[in-house]
């Protein structure tokens, strides 16, 4: 269990396309009240762009971090409807989600674009939460390791270990996102081991042990304790269960309970 003690736990809520500015501010204030001045582990909220300012105000003075759900790889330009990392940093963001499967598969983002976005986040002082994971078809074909190795290699090739250490990886099996299906702790643990071993090969020996790797995919207050009992899981990227303060608080508490 020693790897868990070396890596702090981190739970982030991905609100996706939910919550207006007023709703987001209200939820953030409720979470601040639940978590208090000293949350039991690192916590971040990733609301839609339109709610960033309201949530930032609600989190003012709180250790809870603010994150965004996407960014454009270029710092500026004629990219209608896009947001740069510098804009997010100016809005108070510390984190940004990169390469979520809903963007990879719904918006056509490929590995090369995800790699550019990771570097754009680093350029603009943001911590990227880099999402990787296989589809159900890929898992059924025994391709999980191939997919994870490809995604990690593409994203991290050329990064120094110090740079990699300042990123977060979220393993999100596509077949478990929003479906109610959850990878078993054993499946999640094996995927995390593949991710860490690939980081060792791509970035350098020991890199895998120093990067925070979350699990995401229908995480809720009921299954979180069982998932977090696995030593390879450093936290969670939470979707639907982050939209209600009490359930998200219970997930955070579960992450911090295993030492």
Automatic annotation (TrEMBL):
The record's subunit annotation is: Homodimer.
Q: Its Enzyme Commission number?
A: 5.3.1.1
- Predominant cellular place of this UniProt entry's protein: cytoplasm
Identify the metabolic or biological route this protein is part of.
Answer: Carbohydrate degradation; glycolysis; D-glyceraldehyde 3-phosphate from glycerone phosphate: step 1/1; Carbohydrate biosynthesis; gluconeogenesis
Record key words, sorted: Cytoplasm, Gluconeogenesis, Glycolysis, Isomerase
Instruction: List the InterPro entries.
Output: Aldolase_TIM, TIM_sf, TrioseP_Isoase_bac/euk, Triosephosphate_isomerase, Triosephosphate_isomerase_AS
Subcellular location, record wording: Cytoplasm
* PANTHER family in UniProt: TRIOSEPHOSPHATE ISOMERASE
Q: Which organism is it from?
A: Eiseniibacteriota bacterium
Instruction: Give me the reactions it catalyses.
Output: D-glyceraldehyde 3-phosphate = dihydroxyacetone phosphate
Q: What is the protein named? A: Triosephosphate isomerase
Residues annotated as the enzyme's active site: 100, 172
Question: What is the name of the gene encoding this protein?
Answer: tpiA
> What is the enzyme's main class?
isomerase
Q: Which GO terms describe its biological process?
A: gluconeogenesis; glyceraldehyde-3-phosphate biosynthetic process; glycerol catabolic process; glycolytic process
Query: What family does the Swiss-Prot or TrEMBL record give for this protein?
Result: Belongs to the triosephosphate isomerase family.
Question: Example GO molecular function term?
Answer: triose-phosphate isomerase activity
Residues bound to substrate are: 14-16, 178, 218, 239-240
Q: Which GO terms describe its cellular component?
A: cytosol
Keyword Cell membrane present in the record's keywords: the answer is no
Q: Which residues form a coiled coil?
A: none
* Its biological purpose: Involved in the gluconeogenesis. Catalyzes stereospecifically the conversion of dihydroxyacetone phosphate (DHAP) to D-glyceraldehyde-3-phosphate (G3P).
């Amino acid at each position: 269990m020693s790897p868990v003690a070396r890596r702090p736990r981190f739970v982030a809520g991905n609100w996706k396309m939910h919550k207006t500015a007023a709703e987001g501010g209200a939820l953030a204030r409720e979470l601040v009240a639940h978590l208090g001045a000293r949350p039991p582990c690192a916590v971040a909220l990733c609301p839609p762009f339109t709610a960033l300012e309201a949530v930032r105000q609600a989190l003012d003075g709180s250790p809870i971090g603010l994150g965004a759900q996407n960014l454009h790889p270029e710092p500026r330009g004629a990219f209608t409807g896009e947001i740069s990392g510098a804009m997010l940093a100016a809005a108070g963001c510390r984190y940004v989600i990169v390469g979520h499967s809903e963007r990879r598969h719904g918006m056509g983002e490929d590995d090369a674009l995800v790699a550019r976005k990771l570097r754009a986040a680093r350029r603009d002082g943001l911590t990227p939460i880099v999402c990787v994971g296989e589809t159900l078809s890929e898992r059924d074909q025994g391709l999980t390791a191939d997919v994870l190795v490809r995604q990690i290699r593409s994203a991290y090739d050329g990064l120094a270990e110090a740079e990699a250490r300042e990123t977060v990886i979220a393993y999100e099996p596509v077949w478990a996102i929003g479906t109610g299906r959850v990878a078993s702790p054993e499946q999640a643990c094996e995927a995390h081991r593949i991710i860490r071993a690939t980081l060792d090969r791509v970035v350098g020996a020991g890199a895998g042990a120093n990067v925070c790797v979350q699990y995401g995919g229908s995480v809720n207050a009921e299954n979180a304790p069982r998932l977090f009992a696995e030593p390879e899981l450093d936290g969670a990227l939470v979707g639907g269960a982050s939209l209600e303060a009490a359930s998200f608080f219970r997930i955070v508490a579960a992450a911090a309970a295993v030492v």
